[in-house]
Here is the input.
Amino acid sequence: MRSTPPTRVLVLNSGSSSVKYQLLDMRDSSRLAAGLVERIGERTSLVRHTPLASGGETRERTGQVVDHGAALKAMAEELAVDGLGLDSPELAAIGHRVVHGGKRFTEPTVIDDRVLAEVERLIPVAPLHNPANLTGIRTAMALRPDLPQVAVFDTAFHTTMPESAARYAIDVETADAHRIRRYGFHGTSHAYVSRETAKLLGKAPEEVNVIVLHLGNGASASAVRGGRCVDTSMGLTPLEGLVMGTRSGDMDPAVIFHLMRVGGMSADEIDTLLNKKSGLVGLCGDNDMREIRRRIDEGDERAELAFDIYIHRLKKYIGAYYAVLGRVDAVVFTAGVGENAAPVREAAVAGLEGLGLAVDGGRNAVRGGGPRLISPEGARVAVAVVPTDEEMEIAQQTYALVGKHN
Here is the structure.
């Protein structure tokens, strides 16, 4: 009989053709292993595994991984090589990233048949993500049917939005019948980063108002008042809001009707245009901010315009959320672009000195590291960079929930 409860959590993020995973020990929040199985179903599938606890080198192997079941078995084999197999009594739970939880799931949830049915019912509003999430869950449950499986929803953090922020101004009956409302995404990132920002300021989350800018290939903003989200830029789907790598973000919905009537495009063609051929890649052909900045330095006007449009939208959301919050203690940048692109951070707050926003050139130029302030000493509003850690957030929420049930 075990004298101490198990403390390890396996975090799974199952995409349509990939599975990302991390194994963490929640006694000290250490990472034991991490890996990725990508191009599932293709002959060129890749399994990449890093044994973080031992400091060993990353192992890679190629060859077709036929489905998600085979992907999770490949993951289990790699973990077993390091003595961290799924049969370990140290494993407390498996935490799953689930993109869409609708209005119903407002917190991490132990998965049962009822939860699975509801996540499946939400597929029409998350057709690219929820099916893959379900496949990963069901496969993991088959591998360890005795182990608690926990769903952590991307949308959960945003369920605290008031109806005035969450509802669209369309016929209420139609909206309710088809579950049309603003749900928001990247919720685990916004939750983690807003909390870490409060810690950086030496305050409790309940004491601070924060604008979080999650800027990656997908990008979203949130207004967080006292630890609770009151507004966010993504809506029914991740298409709304900021200019992104391949997504358009905000635009007049009549553009869709125009493309149908005048351009002769189908709904599927427009969907592909707005989600995969728009944003930065649609404006200048590149969705890598490093490449766009390189082209700007060489005098490329198209790249410069794309950057200016990106920044213009970002400024609008900073200003809008400043108005929503009334008082702002910090504006924080996170995710791939937010954490690494100093020119984006500088441009986003340039001209907003009247709102108390500014960056210090020297601080802003520092690369890497943990959470840090990049605003001048004594600034009225802190500007910060806080690396996101969605896997840690999922592990923490999973372990806290499993502890309640033990």
Q: What stands out?
A: The two ends are 15 Å apart (CA to CA).
